[in-house]
């Protein structure tokens, strides 16, 4: 397994005050998920400046937003798509000048299909990476038929043997799928309640909520957990360590997809030129290989995806599947806050 640095793990799991870690180029601070400090993902920046940017880490999207809203300063941040409206509403970001991002024209247009991202005022978001959330499972301990359905997470045979992400968006994607909802942009009160009831059942089986994919991988590799609702990278880490893990993306109720990208933070303390150089390195087609190999994610740049199209990891982890898909696209901010509050109650046992 590709273990994250001790500093990165501690900062990703630590609480409220964001602390710069892996200090390097002092003229660019990137606020990011732990794990994205891998140089192969932005090799062009390292080649240009001889160093990584300075990274600060967070454990989930809501934590990142709260830190930035509380005054933490960085130059760019890496939220997932459903968070962008919060950044805009809080006046934390400014539009990108896409004339300075040559690969912008090669971004798959489906990732830009929202007025939250692109409107008359400009381009507020550069979608950069995408992946899936599905069932990771121990091939040694879990029969394939048990993971043919998302109901494995409420199956009493797996009491104390499952793990879910400590991420409201991902757990609600799971709960909606498990209760027959594939579009979270139009959820009724009845559908919300059915999903909440299902999540409360699933909570009874949870050994731990994982805070980052490294933690999830360690839970499974240690034998503590046999079934997890997982991003691609947790599976990559386990297989790199020789663990026999399956990735079931075709449970009968479906699986979820998501994408993340970069926002240009207002009043960043560093160099605006270097912020663009970092984005250009990230979006270069050559970076698709590093992104796939180190984390298992796809790049939003269509030319980049062409360079890795024949890789077996793409076929298994990123290719289309013939089951329902819940896409984690921007949804009603009020609904998202409702889900977040309910998830906190569920984790607390209420």
Automatic annotation (TrEMBL):
Residues in coiled coil: none
Matching SUPFAM superfamilies: Periplasmic binding protein-like II
Transmembrane helix found in the keyword field: no
Keyword entries, A-Z: Signal
Signal peptide boundaries: 1-23
Keyword Signal: yes
InterPro entries in UniProt: SBP (IPR006059)
PANTHER family per the UniProt record, alphabetical: SPERMIDINE/PUTRESCINE-BINDING PERIPLASMIC PROTEIN, SPERMIDINE_PUTRESCINE-BINDING PERIPLASMIC PROTEIN
Protein name per the record: Extracellular solute-binding protein
